[in-house]
Amino acid sequence: MRQWTHAEYTDAAGREIERMADVVAKQDMSVPVPTCPGWDVGALVAHTGGVHRWAAAMVRDLAERRYDREAMDLGVPEDRAGYAAWLREGGPILVEALRAQDPAAPVWVWGGDRHVRWWSRRQLHETAVHRVDAEIALGMAPEIGEHEGADGVEEFLDNLPYARWRPRIRELTGEGETISLQSDSGAGWVITLNPDGFSYERSQQPGTVTVRAASSGDLMLLAWNRRRSGDYSVEGDASLLTWWLERACV
């Protein structure tokens, strides 16, 4: 698998922001987003562009605490017709903040790697997932590249134990049952449910339940609950996969 640098994550995040802005440009902002219940495209854009500016501020300041995003003036346009341009304008703000800092500099994060490099990786995948949300809402076929998808699966699994606002994540325990995620590209992971939580490793071994997909991007969409398990080839205990997906929901 490709090993990403902070600079590569940063550049890729910038490209994803451009891509999402292209997707939503001149679109109806009132279209519901089925993968984000209660949101329409406008709310999705406002959230994503706000996260970019919020993250940029904390990285720029090397914040030791979480900034209150709701209390920040993020410059969201009053007229939703300006949302796509505003989203696009947030790209350079985020990219410049990330480029200006040492990737190993400490900063507040909600995950485990409490350094600037966590934010470049997180913002790449944050934006990719929400770009997919917009594409699904607008009737487009979403795609995630192989390299981005493979890293996105691992980023999801790395951060999942820290998503403390989702209490059901604490239920992801077991007695050694395994969930195997396998791609036709050759990338694969096996998640093991332990009494005190879960672990994962890169492996092409089958599991108690095994999911097979064409690409790592497809597996990333499954991990983020952006595609239904019924769209995949599932071998073994399908109820275990359903159980996992119900709880591993960020």
Automatic annotation (TrEMBL):
Residues 12-134 form the Mycothiol-dependent maleylpyruvate isomerase metal-binding domain. One of its GO terms (cellular component) is plasma membrane. InterPro entries: DinB/YfiT-like, Maleyloyr_isom, MDMPI_metal-binding. GO terms for molecular function: metal ion binding. It holds the Pfam family MDMPI_N. This is Uncharacterized protein (TIGR03083 family).
